[in-house]
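# step 3/5: fold
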Amino acid sequence: MKLSSRKIERNKHVELTMTSMIDVVFLLLIFFMVFSSFLDTERNLDSAIKVKKSSSANSSDLERAIVEVVRQGDIAIYRVGSRAITDEAELRRILEQFPNKADGAFVRVEDGVPFGMAATAVQACKSADFLAVSYIPIESSN
């Protein structure tokens, strides 16, 4: 039973017209060009960190304020550089002598030190007019 009067032609190549595909690609290109936002890239934005270039002393050359609250024997002490301090007033007096208050201060606290000593060290840095105080816990090596 033959349903079609046409003969099946074998080995005939099918050709696709690419004209409509090119039209679609150009339409998509135009769409994305028109509706894309033209915002500044991150490299063109101003940074939030401002540096004074007119200062006579370079602040990176100055020593940073690092207060360590550590256990020495049975008591907890404050350590600034090589100085060991037990008194809060003495700590504040030493911190007030730092000239680079804009760089901030770092309070490093060892495990097992009373919370009051860590809070006192942070408050002493704030009282000495440091702009930022960072708390850094020190893990014990035991």
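# step 4/5: annotate
The longest helix spans residues 19-35.
# step 5/5: archive (pending)
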